[in-house]
Structure of L-Ala--D-Glu endopeptidase:
Amino acid sequence: MKVVLAIMIALSMLPLPVHAKGTGKQPDELKQRMALYEKVSITTQIPWYVLAAVDQYEHNIRKSRRDLPKQKGVIGIYIPREMWIGPENPNKQDTSPLSIKVFDGIGLDGNGDGKASSDDDEDVLFTFAQYLLHYGSNIDQLKIGLWDYYGRDQTVGIISSFMKLYKHYGHLDLGKHAFPLPVGADYSYRSTWGDARGFGGRRIHEGTDLFAHYGLPVRATSYGVIEMKGWNRFGGWRIGIRDIHNHYHYFAHLNGFAKGLKTGQIVEPGQVIGSVGSSGYGPPGTAGKFPPHLHYGMYKDNGRTEWSFDPYPHLRAWERAERKRK
């Protein structure tokens, strides 16, 4: 423990390293976050992309939940006060590592300043890393730790996808988007989210329909991991992709899939994943019950549930951005 503390103090006196940039200029916040991930990774031996994935997940849910306190620093991880200081600790503002430990709190001093502050980014990240290390150091053991902390399979799955993306690309700058159809091709669309639908019972339309000719390439709209691929009686041949902002992108009524595409695969903005069709509204292989089009939906997960939101404003923005680049 003394050796680890000495390393932490020595590292805290060094300037934070700056990770190599990805495509495009990274915002300062991403640089600061990457520097912290790498620094804590050195002291804990937990891969930086594991810490980055957990933190990104927490950034996402903080933006979607009102029951979580407002984020103060660049790290989004939230550790409840009682868990930080200990459930029986009478000092609700306790920052003493010793007394926190006495009351079975998990809060630790990550930057060597003698305080365990839940408002300090490095203390929070180091504390969470040490929490995970109680379960072991390999990825499967860390995932068990994540399940015990969040108690939700969906959350562990989402964080695992983030790990895969960050490990593959080696940086955090994965916010680029693309329009789902080739800009300049013959297509049309308007805002149809919330419209009534009758097949399979009364329900609302959870997406935007982009009408186009059979076989027009359908493209991934973001960096992400394929969560779902196959047949659905409503959506026909469809693909679901989860991006780094915890948005689930749903592509339905496809004519077919790109060759070799599989669940768990990483995709990039603009990558062809299938083609426009008219599949759906019946058993596997049903097609032609409506004009060919791409149904594009977007969903958000807040750590408790997932809901649909209107993708139309995003589609318009991505389309305009691509036209400007041409």
User: Anything to note?
Assistant: The two ends are 57 Å apart (CA to CA). Residues 2-169 form one domain. The chain has two domains: 2-169, 187-325. Confidence is low (pLDDT under 50) at residues 1-25.
